[in-house]
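Lab notes, practical 5.
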Amino acid sequence: MVGAVQWSRSRVTATALCALLFVLLTGSAYHSREPIQGFMSNRSAWRSKQPPTSRVLVKVGGVPQEGFGSSLHFIKDGIRMAQVLGVDFYPVRTFDFDVFEYNAMDELNLGIDSSKRNWNNMCNLHTSITKVGGHEPFPERVIRLRKGVERFIEESKAMSRGEEYDEEFINEVRQNIEGCDVIVYADQEVHQDWEWDYYTRTWVAEAIRRNAAIKLAQGKARPIPSQDVHVHYRWGDVVDLIQAQHDGGKWNFDNTRLERSIRSVESCLGRKLTSNVFIKHSPAQESDEELRKIIAPIRRDARLIEGEDDIVDLFHLSQAKILAISGGTYSSAAAAIGKFSLVIHNGWHPADYDHLRKDGVPLLEQGEKLTAEQCVELRKTF
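Output from the prediction step:
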């Protein structure tokens, strides 16, 4: 175990940290200084439940311009590391999204009051994980620092899975950042992770719940009464891919086969099920009747929910007992944050739902019928 070291080797000063952030925010890849300035001075009326003196890991960068569901896969490394360190986690945007109407990181931080945090004792995660005394050539130093972060990411993931991990290494990292109020993680590698676990599911579910609660209370979004079954039919932004059966039908959903699965559930429960169908218009701006023809057969009593706000819609989508989803990261995020009795998927990347199997949630591929054992499990939670 490496012993105590001088401040200059264990932490960066506030001045140096600000210089680092300035470089990150004004470089060619980033073209807006407002995001992080607004984040650090946010005085939203919706206060964080954490005390002002709590510590935080801030992820700066490493998130490309993606939709909301995809963006979540680029911050899971930070969520896990923060959980292992016992600190809060803030993902911070370092550029303006010009593809979407919102910035995913801003949406995740909505309602967080960071204005009262102590921003003085700041540490750079890369230089705080391990300590090396004396002179070290720059190229070797960069390689060592990156390897240290990569190792911490992997060890944190092992902990999140409940697997064996290097306890001595984890304790060393915890000791090295013990005096840090803010740990800055400047992700230069861009880490994308499709796996969901307890750490990531809990953090994302709370962020989405908080976002939806604020917008609903302020009248910026409409409440959607939940039904027994919520179906996510992705159409609007991938209409061309669906029509071309792109990626082996990743985006496609067969409602004839879904109906077969739903009828087996109704037979199990001994009653009819109600449903909401979440779908967005394509650039063609289809009418309600046109959308019903597109996804036919669809039950006449099914309510079509046209996309209003991606984050609030995701919250509502996750509020049913039964979730039916097509491929894609938005669908998998809904499956990760809800408390479901059954999930029906289209067969694309079934490994994305391994966390549900571990929870004992029955899974069906569209068209499959409930087994007797699955029916017993379904009745326990429905």
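Observations recorded by the TA: The longest helix spans residues 138-161. Residues 1-53 have pLDDT under 50 and may be disordered.
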